[in-house]
Amino acid sequence: MFDTASLMMTLPELVLTAGGLILMMVAAYAGDGAARLVGWLSVATLALAGWTLCPAWATSGEAFDGLYRADAFGAFAKVLIYVAAAVSIIVAPRFFETGRAIRAEYPILILFASAGMGLMVSAGDMLTLYVGLELNSLAAYVLASFMRQDGRSAEAGLKYFVLGALASGILLYGVSLLYGFTGSTSYAGISTALSDGLSHGELFGLVFVLTGLAFKISAVPFHMWTPDVYEGAPTPVTAFFASAPKVAAMGLTVRVAMEAMGGAVHEWQQIVIFVALASILFGAVAAIGQTNIKRLLAYSSINNVGFALIGLAAGTREGVAAVMSYLAIYVVMTLGSFLCVLQMRDKDGNPVEDIASLAGLSQTRKGLAAAFAIFMFSLAGIPPLMGFWAKFLVFDAAVAAGMTGLAAFGIAMSVVGAFYYLKIIKTIYFDEPAAGYAPAASRLESALIAVSAAVIVIGYFFNPLLDSVSAAAAAALH
Q1: Which of 1, 47, 209, 454 is most buried by its number of CB atoms within 10 A?
Q2: What is the DSSP letter of 41?
């Protein structure tokens, strides 16, 4: 039977899929000369997909007999995903032109990855979850190795593929265990079965599923791929990996924990608390000795995942709302940071990634230096920037749930983590000047950096809106 209502609920994914297929034909016939046109059409497709989310803010519904859920939670996550994807497309042409690697397929891959991420955050069944996850992952493997002439990029793609396949196998094994012991793959069916008491088989399935998801959010101890992939992948791709897939994976983890595993909160809380503590500690300590800015930001992303998981560990509606607010602020901080990294170019226009090359930046590129400082201070959680508010929300949710010790540990580790962010600021403003960077060559990149920095500085004026939207997203899961 032709289910029109279900198709309308999945309209964002249909728009992205149709747009990707049409633009793939354009790229095939017009070649790489149409790369910029395909890029801007891809951004328009993402905007159209975002516009189709409007009905989901007001109502919730299930499509295809519960396989897909259209609600405010999914809509919130998809807006963040589409914004991050659009920025990653917009800034790519100038980067790839330097290495003569610009290809029209790049924005199309991001469209298909975005469609997969949309399925991830709206999945109501383990089968939908897996299809969305693999659609995103298959595009991501190609994106990581997009610069075929660069050995580091090829290595990043291979590592990501091998470890991603391992994580997918672990996740699929966990899903099979849950299906075998609960008799259902739907989140609602699994939750009902788990609420009657957790058997050993169900517990093993729960652990394997959470292990597979921990890899996707690059949480310790399943983080090993992150620094190498972030360093080796092209910088626009790294910016994409650090933002959109991170939101999708965290959104997926929150939905699975609250909807599918809601009947076993005590069991998964212990796992989430351990992963959160380990990620915060490892991310804070391992970043201290890094000399490559992209590797440092990779450890920063691991650290930030740990903080976001504190909100999930609370297991409450307030905790989920805190996670969603954290992700929104994190996306702005991360995109802003990588936009600044894209501006790191030597006199010949070649990308530079050494932290030492930032020395004396405050004397040659005052605007870029100020933006770098804003993003680093915000990632460190220094008030009054929005990064402080993000951490405050998850700590407040943990304290309200009676997890004061967890919040205290997070606060203490925030001090440790602030060291390597402040080290970058110290290099920019106080070290002996290094060779200067090339002048800013893209007004669009500069404008995006300025907008991101402005949001981080004056974002408190938008707190009522962010709080209300996050609360609505959290309410959709309860």
Answers
A1: 209
A2: H
- What is the β-pairing status of strands 61-63 and 68-70? antiparallel
Give the whole-angstrom CA distance, residue 312 versus residue 271.
11
pLDDT tens string 446-470: 899 999 999 999 888 888 888 899 9
pTM of the complete model beyond 0.90: yes
Sign of CA dihedral 408, 409, 412, 415: negative
Q: Considering only CA atoms, which of 466, 226, 215, 198 is closest in space to residue 329?
A: 466
CA distances from 329 to 79, 240, 251, 392 (A): 13, 15, 14, 12
Asked which of 56-65, 113-122, 132-141, 377-386 is least confident by mean pLDDT, the reply is: 56-65
For residue 69, report the phi and psi dihedrals to the nearest 5 degrees. -120, 125
Neighbours of 262 (CB within 10 A): 20
Task: State the Cα–Cα distance between residues 19 and 85, nearest whole angstrom.
Answer: 14
CA distance 202 to 20: 39
Q: What is the DSSP string of 364-426?
A: H-HHHHHHHHHHHHHHHT-TTSHHHHHHHHHHHHHHHTT-HHHHHHHHHHHHHHHHHHHHHHH
181: tokens are: 């012991």
> How far is the C-alpha of 256 from the C-alpha of 252, rounded, in Å?
6
Distance from C-alpha of 151 to C-alpha of 159, rounded to nearest angstrom: 12
Please tell me whether the peptide bond between 221 and the residue prior to it is cis, using omega within 30 degrees of 0.
Answer: yes
> In the predicted model, is pLDDT for residue 287 greater than 90?
no
Q: DSSP state, 348? A: T
